[in-house]
Amino acid sequence: MRRYHQLGLEGLKDRSRRPQHCPPQKVFDQQRQWVLQLRQERKLGARQIQSELRRRHNFSLSTATIHKVLKQAGVKLLKATRRARKTRRRYEKATPGERVQKAMCWRRIPPAACRMDVCKIAPQLYQYTAIDDCTRLKTVRLYPNKQAKSTLEFVEHLISAFPFPIQRLQTDRDEEFFALAVQNRLRELAIKFRPIKPRSPHLNGKVERTQKTDLEEFYSLVNLKSLDLPQQLQ
To answer: What is the C-alpha to C-alpha distance for residues 36 and 45, in angstroms, rounded to an integer?
Structure first.
């Protein structure tokens, strides 16, 4: 009525509902390209993309904005690899050093990890990994092979790296852990050797998962075909 009295019939026409003020644009073409590139090349989720944007480009976006960018580009959601169990029972030892998981992981496509564990990162480059079951304290070393000599050197490093005595050492059934020199050294150190069942990597889950993280979030940023790769990693 007020518009009619002021403007007559012109005042009864519909007006634009466009807001008078809009929030500033957060994502431009360059930032959108960064987000889509990280999803396409490395299959990262929104939270991982958020961390990578901060680390590589010193640029911050909320996970909600990243989801919006992916949705606008028509990018499909990442498929969950495993179903979440209805009930979870956390497995861990109460005393530091009571059980140390050790593994060697092999880099495959897609990357896979094996438990103490050894990872084949590149030709003549293996990563030995050990993680304490209670404290999650982790130590990593690189060696040119996975022979008994390398395993012995890593065991000695493990003793000096952890600030508590080690009671048990849990590994998969790779040959380097069953070498006579390695077994004798473990007896001298009074460390019980506990290999897991064959084809049961889930029993060495903590070290397997941390190696998968190394492969996906660290070695994916390194040129594995470079001739001076060992020098780069040092």
So the answer is: 11
Token pair 């395993």 in the structure block, residue: 151
Structure tokens at 184: 């004798």
178-231: pLDDT as tens digits: 999 999 999 999 999 999 999 888 888 889 999 999 988 888 888 888 767 767
**Residue among 224, 199, 211, 196 nearest 118 (CA):** 211
Is 137:131 a contact under the CB 8 Å cutoff?
yes
Under 8 Å between Cβ of 204 and 174: no
Provide the pairing of β-strand 138-143 with 168-171.
unpaired
What CA–CA distance (Å, rounded) separates 170 from 192? 9
Token pair 């969950």: residue: 80
Structurally, what CATH architecture does the domain formed by 100-233 represent?
2-Layer Sandwich (3.30)
Both structure tokens of 162: 């952890």
Q: How far apart are CA 61 and CA 46, in angstroms?
A: 10
